[in-house]
Write a structure and sequence with these properties.
This protein is of the alpha/beta class. Helix content is 48%, strand content 20%. α2 packs parallel to α3. The longest helix has 17 residues.
Length: 127
C-alpha cells in the first residue's frame, strides 16, 4: 500500500512547519498550502489522502475549501480534519456540516492528533 499523503493547509508558518515536520517523522508524505485557494490547486497536483485544514485563512477560508473539496468527485473520499482556534459549538457544527470528518480545537496535543489521523487512515484500509 502507498504511503498516506497529508496536505497541511495552514497560514501560520510556524505551525505549518511543526505539523509538516511531525507528519514526515511519522512516515507520511506531506505537502503544504497556505490558504484555501492554494489548497484547491494542491489537492489536484498532490492527490492527498487527508487534509488538515485551518478554518481562518486569507483568500479562501477553510469552510469554503472543505465544501469545494467535498463537491469535487476526485476528493470526496479524502479525510478532512478541521484544525482551528474557533471553539464555539456552532463552529464545530459548521465544520462538520461542510464535510469535515473531525474538528480539532487549537491548542491541541500532537500525540492525540496523530492518534486521530492514524485511526481515520486505518479505517480507509478496512473499507
Amino acid at each position: 500500500m502507498a504511503t498516506p499523503r497529508i496536505l497541511v493547509v495552514e497560514d501560520e508558518e510556524p505551525l505549518a512547519r511543526i505539523l509538516s515536520f511531525t507528519f514526515e517523522n511519522e512516515g507520511y508524505v506531506v505537502a503544504r498550502a497556505e490558504d484555501g485557494v492554494d489548497c484547491m490547486n494542491k489537492a489536484v497536483t498532490f492527490d492527498p489522502d487527508m487534509v488538515i485544514m485551518d478554518l481562518m485563512m486569507p483568500k479562501m477560508g477553510g469552510l469554503e475549501a472543505i465544501k469545494l473539496l467535498r463537491h469535487r468527485q476526485t476528493s470526496r473520499e479524502l479525510y478532512i480534519i478541521a484544525l482551528t482556534a474557533r471553539s464555539r459549538a456552532v463552529d464545530r457544527e459548521e465544520a462538520l456540516a461542510a464535510g469535515a470528518d473531525l474538528f480539532v480545537h487549537k491548542p491541541f496535543q500532537i500525540p492525540r492528533l496523530l492518534e486521530q489521523i492514524d485511526r481515520l487512515l486505518a479505517s480507509r484500509r478496512v473499507r
